[in-house]
Structures are given as C-alpha cells and as structure tokens.
Design goal:
alpha/beta, 32 strands, 42% helix, RNA-binding, elongated, 5 domains
Length: 994
RNA sequence: GGGCGUAUAGCUCAGUGGUAGAGCACUUCGUUGACAUCGAAGGGGUCGGGAGUUCAACUCUCUCUACGCCCA
C-alpha cells in the first residue's frame, strides 16, 4: 500500500469507525484486566451534536482510549436522555406548525407521538458521536426511558419514599405559567429588570388612619392576608393587632410583626401575600396561616381566579396577571390611595426553558429531601473520596450543597417517568364514593413499583376489589348517573399520579442504573431486626416512612457482577454548567443507593465560546457546527483542537485557524510516514526500544522516553493541553524537523545533486566519509529499525487524540510486512524500557545548535541557504573533533558544512560562529559585507554580555550567595562562566575582523 | 450582598520563585526529491495598576481597576 500524497480525513474516518465497531473493539473482552469506567453525560435523545458535546466527548474519548491502550478493561457507557421538558417542547412546537396542540390528543396519543419522534430523530446524535470518533460501548446503549432504566427510576422513587427521603408537600413552587408545570430552583434564572415600586395606603378598619405599604407586584394585593411591620419598629407599635381593610376586596387582614419587614425599606410596612411570594409564605406561616388556608388568586396560566373567600370583584377574574396589575393600580389610584411610584430594578425570575416569568404558586408536589442526601456527598468531597478537578470548583460545590433546598421532582408534563403513586378514596369513607373535591391528589396513596403491586396493596387495604382507571374516569365514577359510575359500581377505583419526574431525577442514576442496578444487587445477611428499606407492610395505604438507614446499608453489588466491577466509575467528565443539575445529584443518589461515590474523580470543563468570546446561541446566530468543522478539517483535527485548548479552569474560544493548524499537523505526520515508507522504514515489532549505537538514534529514543513520561503525567493530571502539546512538539519539532533530517544521510548516502546517483561514493574524498559499506549497511538497518519504532510510538501516543489517521498509518506502515497482529485501538501503550542517554543528547543538541547558528549567519550575511561552506574550528578539543568526525555526513547534508576541520582558517573574510566552547570560522569567497558580520557579532555579544552582567550582579550580591539555595548559586556561577567565555570568543572574533 | 475566575507578543492561549513560551498573524528568504496543508531565519512583550514578603516576583500576599460567571 502506498500512501496518497495528501491526507484526506473523509476517506478514512467512516471506514475505521465501522471497522472498530463491527469488531467490537470499543469493549474488548478483558475480564482479567483492571476495569476503567466512565459514563457519558447522556445527550438529549432528539438533539444534535453541538460544539460543547464535541469538547466533552473528545476529552472522554482521549481518556478512555488511553486507558484501553494501557490494557485496562475500559468501559465507556453511552446512552441518551429523554429530556422531559425539552423533548416535549420540541414535539409541541412541531404540532403548532400543524395548527395542533398537545391537548388535542389524549395523553397516550401524545406520548406515542413523542416516541415516534424519538424513533425518527433519536439516531442523529449517536451517529454524530461516531463521526467524532468516540469509542463508546454501543452494544449496551441505554435510554433513560428504556424498560430497565425506568424500573430503576421507579424503584429509587419508592425506596426514597420508604426511607422518608421523598415526600409530598403543599408549599410554594416555582410555577412556569407558559409550560404549566412546576420547575426546580435550578431551572429558574433571575434577571434584573427595570420595574416600579408602588406605594399604597391601606386604610385601617377602625377608621383611625392608614398604613403605607410598598410593592413591586401590586396585583397580588387581591390575595393579601396581612400587613407586617418589624417588631422593633416603634412607628407602628400601636397599630399592631389592628385590622386593615383592603381596598378593592374589602378583606380584613391583621397588622402583624415579623422580622422580615425591613424598617429601612419604604415605609417599613409590607403587605403579605403568602400564596404568591416566597418570603410572604414564611411570614404567613409564622403568622399562623396553614399552607392549605393561604389564599390563591392565580390559575395555572397565571390568570386571576377567585380566592376561597370570594372577595375578588368579578371584573378581575380571568385577567392576565399583568393586566390585573394595571387595573389594581388604577383602582387604588381612583380611591386616592396611591401615594407614589418609584423606579426600581427588580430581580425577576424566568423559566430557563420557556423564558416566562415564574410565578410562586401553592401546589402539592413531590420533594426529595436533598439536605439529608447532600450530607454524605459533601463529606465524600471533603474526605477526598471524590476528587474535583480543578479543585477551585470544590468551593462552589460545597456552597450549593450546604445550602441545598428540598428538590421538587414532580413535573406537570406528559413526557417522562410517570410518578409511581396511585391514589384512591379516603379510607374513612370507603363505603362511599368519596373522592376529594379540592384536588385530585388528596386521598389515600399507594406508592408501588408496579401497577400490580398497587392493585394488590389497595385491594388488601380496602378489602374489596380494586381497579385502575384514568383520573377522569375515576372522578366520573363517583358521580351517579355517569357511564363510569355504572361501570365501576361496587369496586374501588384508583388512579395513577398524573405527573412525571424531573429529568434529572432519572439521569442522577446514570452511573449505576446503566450497568446492572438493581438486578446486580444483593441483600446482606441481617443482624437483629429486619432492615429498613422497601416496606412491604401494609398496615396503611400510606405507610409512615421509616427513618433513613445509613447510606447503602444492607445491600451491595453482587461480587463479580458488572455493577461491582464498574462502580464506582473512575472518572466523570462534565461541563461545569451541570455541576448542580447532574453531578451533585449523581453524588447524592449514588451514595444513597450504592453506598459508594459514583466516581473517584470529577473533571469539570468550561464552555466553548464563539471566537469573539460570546456565548454561542442560535438566536445570536454565532453557533459553530462541529460537524461542519469535521467536514472541513477532519475529526482528528477538531479533536486535537479541543484537547490542545482545554486547560483547566478556562473557557475555550473557538478559533478555526487553530483547527486548521491541527489539520496541517495531521498532514505533516502523514508526510513523515510517507517519507518513512519510501525509505524502507516500516512497522516495528518490539515494544521495547531497539538497540542503537548511532548517537542520533540513541538521542531520539531518549526523546521518546522523555515525551512518554511528560505525556503520561499530563494525562494523569488531566492536563489535556499539556498532553496534546507534548506529542505535537515531539512529532513536529523533534522527529520531523531534526531526526528525519539527520538520518537522511544514513538512509540515502547519495552524493550531492549532479552526481551519478546511487552507489557508494567511490573516491569522493571531499565528503570524507570514513565508514566502509558493511558498517554503512549496519547503520542503515539500525536507523530504519529505530525510525520505524519511533514512528510507531508516535502513532500510539497520538492515537487517543487523533484516532483515525493513526489507525490508518498503523496499518499502512505494516502493509509490506504482512500487516499488524492487532488494530491500533487495542494496541499496547509504549514501554520503551530505555534510559535517557546523556551523551547522545549532548551531541545532538550540539549539532542542532551549530546548524541553527550557521543558518542564522547565512540569512544575516545574505548567503544563499543552500550554499555549501567549509568550517575551521578554533579551540576544538579532541572530543569535539571526534564528534565532528562522527557527524560529518549530517553536518554536510543538514548544515551544508561540507568540510569541518581543525586547520587554521585562511586569511580573508569569514563568518564566525560561537557554539559551546568553540568558534567555527567559515571563510567566505568573494566579497563579504564586513559591516554586516560585525553587526551580527556585536548583536550576539551584546546579548551575551547583558546576561553575563546580570549574573555577575547577582553573584556579587552577598545576600544572594549566602541565602539563596546552593543549587541556584552553583547554576549562576556556571552560567556566568559560560557567558563570559562566550563573550570572550565573540570579542576575539570581532577583533579578527579588524 | 456572597463566592469563583480571568487580565502575559497584533490575536488565541500556555507557563515557572532565579530577567518569558506556543499556535496563528507579520517580515525576509527558499525547487536541499516526505511535506508550500511546507522549510529556514527574524521582528514583536517594563507578564492590568499600586503596595508588600523575599537575596530574587510574571510567578506568593494584600489592594485597586476592568471583564466574565455562579449563588442570594
């Protein structure tokens, strides 16, 4: 096989990806090997790959490929998330285009449509992850709503309930009137908006005057239940306890004292609307109002509805909240009770999905006791059981976890995991059809994992036949005369909770529910009393929850099971933007249900921003499509870009030029391989570095050893940028720029252009090549062996970053030898078992320095770069002359120094170069620009003198010599000596120029 | 209000207690048979301002300024 002249990524990417996948190489069977496990943050099933996914998944793939190459049983769990709200919104939006809406369909019909959409578009993102080269275990691809996962979700819900860590409560939630669902605190975004502060006068009932209150939300006065003043506020001391007669509604409400009232703010008195404000809710409770008695004046769409006391005037009903606001203000002004209006910046809550203003609303919802679950999760980070990288995120994690609020997990949506709770009539009224009138979820509750369990539990509880119906049928069944009444006569009807769970409730289980939980769990032998857990007791429909056992108590993963093997995961890589949403919740649920942390390390990366630093967003139109970049530059280039830019604790700015640069890097490697191919350099057959005698070979082996060490360290530290740069510079600067150039004379000992070509250089004494042919052949063989080995090491070390081109080269380099025994993806990580060779390193460093200096001099003296020159060495000791003898061919070919001798230079113009301890005099034929050479030497001298002087200053400082570390002093002395000597040589060279 | 982060070459970013690096851009030169998606050489920075610690600070501490993010 011959490599094409130019590397074209598109030609090989798809081929290698399906090769790997078809051969099952993403999950090679390595039962004996140490496991290494990561789970992929499941993307939205109907989504498509954006630039953030590209970063996140590239980093994970680098790690997993590296671990796989190191021989681990590397498992990268993959799957997609049903993404409740997001997916439902997508489908609803599609319906809108067809002039349809969700409620035109039954719930089942709608959910079916979402499934259909999932089937249609669910493969998009997984296909795109493949294009990026991600080596996930597709053979066990999961979905958060697949059967097994749903079972896990349900079990967690029931178990949490039974442990008392999940409960139903009536309190204020963040209600999204656009989506008509409750959302969690995290899904609310607070935005500062310009608004107003209205000051009203509320008349006292006894006619003795009025009290001023101020509010940013005047419409809520329709549900005011009190006016609060600070207990120490003397201005109002004699008003406390009196009643206020509210304008518009005429409701009588008390003046109460509460710390919440800030005497400095406005008049110092505040109106209290417990049903529509989080602070007021607390004040209301302190004032003795039960949540159930708090007045509610808004419906699910945030339109005005009648309060339970019926006092809101008819004309306000059904008004939008903002229209009601205007009307309330106008009415109060008309009554002469509007004191004044101030401009004010208002913290306004918006729903992150709907962008609607969030309404605090009093409803029954399911809550997780996050505070209890958070404690061991906090402890796990404090103790180091979980290491957060970069460490600076710990503080953010602690701050959130230590102030965590109950987590509202119920959502009034149709797409998601249905809450596994069934309701039935109150037991007290079991002989009648006594369904609660106020709310569908007030009744007996049966919290069970399956319908069958619920039926059984209910039947035992009621002692009668029980059937499950939908909510509307169930309600209808208690109205005599309805069809349902007749149908269910003589039976108890129960119905399932209408709500679904927060998407993050299910994704929090990802690290264990994807790999065998709960089937791979077993119960440990018990001591004493039965353990607390899933309660089977049926003494009541709603058994009182038991206190929570210690984390994971009484259960463990079955030894030898997949779950035991892969939990805890080794690492989680996620964007910091989902630290609270996902990572923290995984930590809580993982510890609670497995008794162990979900992962040993948590790596948080930043956002990929647009090239101007702004956030990418569809509305701004500055979104960069990773697939477009793959088309243009190849997946390898995009991946390398992501790695090279990923430094800890900083966002990444998009830079297409840089992606292009890494495409060029791939091309460079490709061409280096082509060079090897045409020079008979092919695949190596040893892991261990070959034996080498030539300095250049010993040197490059040492460089591999050093590179490998740096690379391993960088990857161990999750320094993706350092890792990428290490392999980049080794490949380009060391291997291509120097090694391949330096071995050319060994590989093809041709006379210069114009010669007959080929064959030994008989009689070509000018080149002074001392080695006879047999030795030349040995050197050639050794060099080919070493070069082939080094290229292999590059291919392996680069593979985690650039999997496609490296796999391609891995195979093509072995084509002549009958191919490779295995694919690169499952090859072995380098293990050179060689030491750093200091002598070889010194020699090659010297030749690099000398050649570079010669080139510089040529440019500055306007000598054609290709011109061959002779050099006369001054002050060269025997070691140097031996070195020169060894490197004659390289000095000639690479340095264009065709003759380097210790002879004195002839009189006349010459360029002079100082390297290490010697001066190289290069006689110049014809006219030389003496002035230019003088300028050049002077410039060099200036630099050296400056350094020497600075070192001298430091050394003459007694404090430095006495107090600095001895090594530092020693180094300064040595450097000073070097610089001084170099300066002397440069001065001598200048002197010779006259 | 609290917390975090960032300010280093024209741009995007690394970096270490001992007087600064990369990629891109820029300048000059280049058909040395791997590579112009390249090669060689070069110019360019008082490392945001101020103060402190230290023999020594871009690097540590404090402070100020600017920008960004998170929480309330």
């Amino acid at each position: 096989m011959t490599l094409e002249k130019t590397f074209s990524p598109a030609a090989i990417e798809a081929r290698w990806y399906s090769h790997w996948e078809d051969k099952g190489l993403f999950r090679p069977e390595r039962d004996e090997a140490e496991p290494f496990t990561i789970v992929n943050p499941p993307p939205n099933v109907t989504g498509s790959l954006h630039i953030g996914h590209a970063l996140d998944n590239t980093l994970q793939d680098i790690i997993i490929r590296h671990e796989r190459l190191k021989g681990k049983d590397a498992l990268w769990v993959v799957g997609t998330d049903h993404a409740g709200i997001a997916t439902q919104m997508v489908v609803e939006r599609q319906m809108m285009e067809l002039q349809q809406k969700r409620t035109d369909f039954t719930r089942d019909e709608f959910v079916e449509k979402v499934w259909a959409w999932k089937e249609e578009s669910g493969g998009t993102i997984t296909g795109q992850l493949r294009r990026l080269g991600c080596s996930m275990d597709w053979s066990n691809e999961r979905f958060t709503m697949d059967k097994g996962f749903t079972r896990a979700v349900t079990k967690v819900f029931v178990d949490l309930y039974n442990k008392g860590l999940l409960y139903r409560d009536k309190r204020l939630v963040n209600w999204d009137p656009g989506l008509k669902t409750a959302i969690s605190d995290l899904e609310v975004e607070t935005v500062e908006k310009n608004g107003k502060f209205w000051h009203f006068k509320y008349p006292l009932e006894d006619g003795s005057g009025s009290i001023s209150v101020a509010t940013t939300r005047p419409e809520t006065m329709l549900a005011d239940m009190a006016v609060a003043v600070h207990p120490s506020d003397e201005r109002y001391a004699d008003m406390v306890g009196k009643m206020v007669k509210l304008p518009i509604t005429g409701r009588l409400v008390p003046i109460v004292t509460d710390e919440h009232a800030d005497p400095e703010l406005g008049s110092g008195a505040v109106k209290i609307t417990p049903g529509h404000d989080f602070n007021d809710f607390e004040v209301g409770k302190r004032a003795g109002f039960a949540p159930a008695d708090m007045l509610n004046m808004l419906d699910a769409e945030a339109k005005v509805c009648q309060t339970s006391d019926g006092l809101i005037p008819e004309e306000y009903l059904s008004m939008d909240r903002f229209d009601a606001r205007k009307k309330v203000v106008a009415a109060i002004e008309a009554e002469g009770l509007l004191e004044n209006i101030e401009d004010r910046v208002i913290q306004t809550p918006y729903g992150d999905r709907s962008n609607e203003i969030i309404e605090p609303w009093l409803t029954d919802q399911w809550y997780v006791d996050a505070e209890t679950l958070a404690q061991p999760a906090i402890e796990a980070v404090k103790s180091g059981e979980i290491e957060i990288v970069p460490k600076s995120w710990e503080k953010t994690y602690f701050n959130w976890m230590e102030n965590i609020q109950p987590w509202c997990v119920s959502r009034q949506l149709w797409w998601g995991h249905r809450i596994p709770v069934w309701y039935g009539p109150y037991k007290d009224n079991k002989d009648e059809w006594a369904y609660p009138a106020d709310h569908y979820r007030n009744g007996e509750m049966f919290i069970c994992q399956t319908e069958e369990d619920a039926l059984q539990r209910a039947a035992e509880f009621y002692g009668k036949e029980v059937v499950i119906a939908d909510y509307s049928d169930a309600i209808a069944s208690c109205l005599p005369g309805t069809e349902q009444y007749r149908k269910y006569l003589g039976k108890f009807v129960i119905w399932q909770d209408l709500d679904v769970l927060d998407t993050w409730f299910s994704s929090a289980l990802w690290p264990f529910a994807t790999i065998g939980w709960p089937d791979d769990m077993e119960t440990l032998p018990l001591e004493g009393e039965g353990r607390v857990g899933v309660s089977d007791s049926i003494e009541g429909a709603t058994p009182s929850p038991q206190p929570s056992p210690r984390r994971g108590e009484g259960v463990r993963a079955k030894p030898g099971s997949d779950l035991a093997r892969h939990y805890p995961n080794d690492l989680l890589i996620s964007g910091f933007d989902i630290l609270f949403f996902w990572d923290a919740r995984m930590a809580m649920q993982g510890i609670e249900f497995m008794g162990e942390v979900p992962w040993k390390r948590l790596y948080l990366h930043g956002l990929v921003r647009a090239d101007d630093g702004s956030k990418m967003s569809k509305s701004k139109g500055n979104v960069v499509d990773p697939l477009g970049l793959i088309d243009e530059y190849g997946a390898d280039a995009l991946r390398f870009f992501m790695a090279a830019m990923e430094s800890q604790g900083r966002d990444i700015k998009m830079d297409k030029k840089r992606v292009e640069g890494y495409r060029n890097f791939a091309t460079k490697l490709w061409n280096a391989a082509r060079f090897c191919e045409v020079n008979g350099i092919g695949a190596s057959d040893t892991l261990k570095a070959p034996e080498a005698t030539l300095p250049v070979n010993r040197w490059i082996i040492s460089e591999v050893v050093e590179t490998l060490e740096t690379l391993d360290k960088a990857l161990a530290d999750l320094r993706f940028d350092a890792a990428a740069n290490t392999i980049y510079h080794f490949t380009w600067d060391r291997f291509c720029d120097w090694y391949l150039e330096l071995i050319k004379p060994v590989l093809s000992p041709l006379p210069p252009a114009g010669g007959a070509g080929g064959g030994p250089e008989t009689g070509n004494e000018a080149h002074d090549i001392p080695t006879p042919n047999p030795s030349r052949e040995r050197e050639g063989d050794e060099t080919r062996r070493v070069a082939g080995w080094v290229l292999d090491q590059i291919i392996v070390m680069l593979h985690p970053f650039m999997p496609f081109i490296t796999e391609e080269l891995w195979h093509s380099m072995a084509a002549d030898k009958g191919g490779r025994a295995y694919d690169l993806i499952v090859a072995k990580w380098p293990d050179p078992r060689a030491a750093i060779d200091a002598d070889a390193k010194a020699e090659i460093d010297w030749i690099i320095k000398l050649v570079s200096e010669v080139r510089t001099a040529k440019v500055e003296l306007n000598i054609p770069p290709g011109a061959k020159m002779a050099a006369h060495v001054r002050d060269g000791d025997a070691d140097l002359m031996a070195r020169i003898a060894r490197q004659t061919a390289a000095l000639d070919r690479v340095g264009r120094l065709e003759k380097v001798t210790a002879d004195a230079a002839p009189d006349g113009a010459a360029a002079q170069i100082v390297v290490d301890g010697a001066t190289y005099v290069l006689p110049l034929e014809g006219v030389i620009d003496i002035a230019a050479e003088k300028a050049r030497l002077n410039k060099a001298l200036e630099g050296v003198m400056k350094e020497a002087k600075s070192l001298e200053g430091r050394l003459s400082n007694a404090n430095f010599v006495e107090r600095a570390k001895p090594e530092a002093v020693e180094k300064a002395r040595a450097d000073h000596a070097d610089k001084t000597a170099e300066a002397e040589r440069l001065q001598a060279a200048l002197a010779r120029l006259g």
